[in-house]
Each structure stands twice: as structure tokens, then as C-alpha cells.
Amino acid sequence: MQKPSVDVVTFGCRLNAYESEAIRKTAADDGLDNAIIFNTCAVTGEAVRQARQAIRRARKENPEARLIVTGCAAQTDPDMFANMAEVDFVIGNGDKAKAGSYALTPDTTRVRVNDVFSVRETAGHLIDGLKDRARAFVEVQNGCDHRCTFCIIPYGRGNSRSAAAGDIVAQTQRLVAEGYNEIVLTGVDLTSWGADLPGTPQLGHLVVRILRNVPELKRLRLSSIDAAEIDDTLLRAFAEEERLAPYLHLSLQHGDDLILKRMKRRHLRADSIRLVESVRRIRPDIAFGADMIAGFPTESEDHFANAVSLVDDCDLSFLHVFPYSPRPQTPAAKMPQLPRPLIKERAERLRAKGTEALTRHLDRQAGRTLSCVVEKPGFARAADFTEVVFEGSSVPGQLADIAIHGHDGKHALGASL
After folding, report:
1. Total-model pTM
2. Beta bridge partners of 416
3. pLDDT value of position 52
């Protein structure tokens, strides 16, 4: 098989993965050839380090290719990448999916990074589905209006802006017509969707509108959401609509009130517990995941214990743990820092708690029949986000009922019916 003339290397979140497909399409339309585009992430220092390492390795392996860096890290620190001898061009987030950005000539400006806070549009690069994926992602929102003290993402993405509901519904209809059974709504701050639109609709209104207007859609899933912003219409949708996947990935970040305040989060520990309990009452089959940060500045052992115990108090099933990493331009970077070995040690302890929580979740799956989207032969994901390894034949992208008989600590094990 001939290698593609343009390769896109993606770091970070699902939204980046979505946007990489838009980048790939734009680059092809612009006639870009023999190039590697790095769609970077700025969430942690480790993500930036991995990108720089990948760029150096790519130059050694592809001495004639043009190397282009874009994404959040390119937006927040363009000079760092411009100063790398391996890099040919740096393109900011505002231009990375814009037509013409990759029509490169000898006269093209090497660094093209504009003020991302001036960007107002978000729906210009909706695409017709991700290639080689069992599900399709629809970007409904970009940017963030909040200023959590640890987070650099607003400086990479700009302020929140929403795609119009009609465009989102039309895009979903096209994807379902192409055969996608599961659609995932994604964004940087998904629950802020609609705040900048006429009438300020909320995410729940969008979910209900999609499900009502696309009756052929088998499953609608939400990506990571902020627990502080879940609206009543969305809660009713979980209670009334089985096609809304019974899974919520919550941006909790911590379980201690003082640390949450220092993070400038808009919820407290009791709010997290109250939310999980209220959703579980109306949708008993729901599972929860969460983003958590270990080793935030000033975090004591007692503070950390409150983060660990939140996993049990919310009965979380899936944990995504970030060791705290100071990011330039953020207030938390100026707070008293913990030693790196202690941060790493606490992250490992929190991950161990996550493993315990996952085991508890998998124990509950034995004897159940799960409706799953097949991602590849022998591997599927259930509606509640459980990964399933199974025996039997199924086509990637199709829904399959799988009888679960056990687990291996990471996946449920079963057989298709």
C-alpha cells in the first residue's frame, strides 16, 4: 500500500483527533504533498515534550518531508517550535483547518499564529465522519470562557463559541445516512454550548433536538462535561431517552473543597456527589468517569485523601489521572509547587484507586448482555463505555449484543449473540 503523502500526528484529546481529520482534508484540498503535520496538545508539559520528541524523530526518518506544527501547543508557544531546526512551518489553532493554510509556497510566512481570542466561528470545518472509526464525532463547541488556575487551554482555543443547532442536526443526519450508529458530541467545554447563541439554549435542548430530528440514530454519546453546568433538560433526557448513552465523563479534577477553590473550579465536593446520585436515580444503568489531577500546588496529604475517597463516594468506574504540570501563563504555576517525585507518587496512588474502581465496575458486568459498538474484530465498547473483548463475528461500526461472562481486569469478556 502506498504511504499517504500527508501524515497527521495527533496528540491529546478526542477533539484534537476530530480536528486532525479536518486538517487532513484541508491539507489534501490545498495540494500539500510529502508533509507531516503535528496537531499538538498543551494540557501538560509531558504532552509538549512528546510532541517535540516526535518532531525530532520524524525529521531523522523523513529528511525530505516538510514538518508542520499546529494545535494548542503551537498556539500557546509558537516560538519554541519555530526555534526547532526540524520545523518548517508553525500554524495556529485559528488557521489549522482553514482553506489555504497548507497551500505553502517559498513566500509563505513560516510562523502564522494569530490572536485566538479574536476567533468567533466554530462550525466551519465540520466533516463527514472520522475515517477508520467505529463512531463519528461532531464538534458542537470550541474554546472556554472559564479560567481554571491550572489550565492553559483557553490560551490555545480562545473563548467559547457554539455551532448552530441546525448545522449540528444536519451533520448528524448525514453521518447516520453514511451508516454510523453512534455519534459523539464533542467540544472543549461541551456544557457551555449555546451560551453565545440567540436565546441561549442549553446542551440538553441540543440533545433533545438531535434525538427528535434524527430518529434513525441508534446512540448519542456525550464527551467530557463540566459537572457545574448540567441542565435540567439534559437530566430529563437521560431519564427518558434510552438512545442517550448511559455514561458521563465528568471534569471533577479534585475532591477537596480548598483545592477546588484554588483551582477556581465552580463546584465543590458535595456538588459532585449530589450530581452523580441524582443522575443515577433516574438512570440506574449509568456509569461515570472523571478527570482528576494529582499533586496540585499546596495539596496536603489530607487534601489528596479527599481526592482518593471521592472515587468511592461517587462510585466512579473510569479514571483519567493527570499528574499536575505547571503551565506557563497560568496562576497555579506561581503557587507553591510540590516536589515532582511526590506528584508522580500521588498520581500512581490515584491510578491504583482507578484500577480498583474499574475492577469493581467489571465485576458487576458478569451475567449481563451489553449493547456494544464494534470497534474492530473481537473488540467493542458498551453503551456505558466498558471495553469488551469478545468471541464471535461482527462488523466494525455495527451494534452487537454481547453476553458477558467475566473480565481480565481491563476489559469485560464475552461472546456475541
Report:
1. 0.87
2. 402
3. 96
